Amino acid sequence: MTSILAPPPEGSGLKPVRGQPGVPYIGNTLQVMRQPFKVARRRYDQFGPVSWGWLLGQRTVTVQGAEAAEVVLVNRDKAFANGPAWNYFIGPFFHRGIMLLDFEEHLHHRRIMQQAFTRDRLRSYMAAMAPGIKGGLEAWEPGSSFKVYDHIKQLTLDLATDVFMGVELDRVEADRVNGAFIAAVRAGTAYVRYPVPGLRWHKGIQARKVLEAFFRRHLAAKRRDGGDDLFAALCQAETDEGDRFTDDDVVNHMIFALMAAHDTTTITLTTMAYYLAKFPEWQERLRDESLALGKPVLQFDDLDALPSADLVMKEALRLVPPVPALPRRVVKDTSILGHHIPAGSLVVVPQLTNHRMAEWWPDPERFDPERFAAERREDKIHKYAWSPFGGGAHKCIGLHFAGMQVKSILHQVLLRYRWSVPGRYEWPLDTTSLPSPRDGLPVRLDRLEHGS
Ligand code: HEM
Predict the structure, then answer these.
(1) Beta strands 3-4 and 18-19: pairing type?
(2) Atom of ligand 1 nearest to the CA of 328
(3) Amino acid 451: pLDDT
(4) Nearest CA, atom 37, ligand 1
(5) Taking the mean position of all CA atoms in its chain, how far away is CA 102?
(6) What pLDDT, on the 0 to 100 scale, is given for residue 301?
(7) Ligand 1 in contact with 264 (CB < 6 A)?
(8) Rounded CA gap, 203 and 222, in Å?
């Protein structure tokens, strides 16, 4: 049954937000998670770019298309807040991470954090990750059922220990920290959102304690000795005005940054691997570019030398944006494209489905990296048509880091291995949490002669 979210104030000239909210609290949460594309299409056809429904226990306004996404992400009248939206999902495990801060306070932290992502810093992070990539890839065992997702996840996690923490860990401690980190991330998708011992939420809270203790233990030495890692960079970051992070800030930002960087890069590389297996001509094209570079390890100044990898990465991020939806809490009455949005509502920008809207992308389901080539630039149709890194004040601070890491890994993989899937294989993409292949993406992996 169609109903409106709230009547617009008299004389405002605004329209109400309509929708088919479904059963209170439950709504069509399951359908949205399992068949996001179908549900989004139906809603758009019926109600246009702004509609509402119950989602995960919340009255949720979904904004579809680039124009509505821009209004929310640019957030001109500061009506949309991150903290009270994200806290609901990940607050207990990632509280006071920068993405969960808002407005003046967020800006203050962002200015300091920016110092950890300068060109010079990126250059040294990239150099620091090369040996870890080499070692990680050498240990891969070719075969007919090599699970790409699982291996990439392990590799990016191990790299995080080098590049993010820069702390020498024995295997036992590395496993303990990595385990805690995985538990904290998984807790965000717990069904039982209450600390019942043995269940995900509880494990997440325990894990948060392990991570806090770990970073606190190493903090004094990091502040004193510095280093080329993100941990040291956050300890040393200072704005021109002399603002620095407190010890608590460093701990909170480290735990958050690990999370923000890890799954996103893993998903991007896995999606690229999937399409490069389905479209071997693209895999060969990328391999030829990597071979033409004539270097076993990609360096900072080579980042622009792999144009086809750029195209494929963009198309992978369009088809499977690792952060599939961006939630915001409405902190004062506002409007989106002439619709009245009352304070208290949750607003969601669904990147996953927005990126496949036929209104913005020709033949949206098709893997077609050339759509980003200079002669076509289909993304130019609107600044927010392609926005896997978000936009506005919270736009991903690690986007260059991500490009660097993805290309560094991909370059070495292309030189060492060839991979394929059976002709009719379609991956079972799980969209109930961050997107990932339910089967781990099994491929046939072969080692190449020239790649050692
Ligand atoms: C392909 C990989 C990545 C994707 C698709 C991605 C995507 C995003 C998105 C969509 C946001 C905005 C969230 C929002 O507006 O609510 C974001 C924020 C953020 N990302 Fe990334 N990210 C990636 C990699 C990274 C990496 C590698 C790092 C760190 C090295 C990182 C650190 C952050 C941080 C700190 C924020 C919060 C920024 C703020 O609130 O000011 N991300 N990311």
Answers:
(1) antiparallel
(2) 16
(3) 54
(4) 99
(5) 19
(6) 97
(7) yes
(8) 28
Give the pLDDT band (50/70/90) at residue 149.
Answer: very high
Atom of ligand 1 nearest to the CA of 106: 41
For residue 335, what pLDDT is reported?
98
How much is the pLDDT for 450?
A: 64
| Mean of pLDDT values over 219-227 | 93
> How crowded is residue 412: how many other Cβ atoms within 10 Å of its Cβ?
21
User: Which of 164, 396, 406, 436 has the most ligand 1 atoms within 8 A of CB, as the residue to mutate?
Assistant: 396
Ligand 1 atom at minimum distance from 317 CA = 5
Q: List residues bridging with 238 in a β-sheet.
A: 244
44 alpha carbon – ligand 1 mean position (Å): 27
Distance CA 224, CA 407 (A): 33
CA of 166 to the centre of ligand 1 (A): 21
- Name which residue sits closest to atom 3 of ligand 1, judged by CA: 264
Please name the amino acid found at residue 167.
V
SS3 sequence, 379-427? HHHCCCCCCCCCCHHHCCCCHHHHHHHHHHHHHHHHHHEEEECCCCCCC
Say yes or no: CB of residue 314 within 6 Å of ligand 1: no
Q: Which range among 85-99, 167-181, 321-335 has the greatest average pLDDT?
A: 321-335
Half-sphere exposure of 298 (CA within 13 A, CB side): 28
Separation CA 299–CA 84 (nearest Å): 40
CA of 395, closest atom in ligand 1: 12
Kindly give the number of the ligand 1 atom that is closest to the alpha carbon of 321. Answer: 5
State in words which class domain 90-319+363-451 has.
mainly alpha
Q: Which of 285, 278, 261, 290 is nearest to 316 (CA)?
A: 278
Burial 357-382 (b: 16+ CB within 10 A, else e): beebbeebeebbbebbeeeeebbeee
Residue 349: which of 23, 42, 72, 144 has the closest Cα?
72
- What is the chain's mean pLDDT, rounded? 94
Ligand 1 centroid to Cα of residue 308, in Å, is 23
pLDDT score recorded for residue 452: 47
Domain segments of the chain: what residues? 90-319+363-451
- The model's pTM is 0.96
| pLDDT tens for each residue of 25-54 | 788 888 888 899 999 999 999 999 999 999
Confidence of residue 394 (pLDDT cuts 50, 70, 90): very high
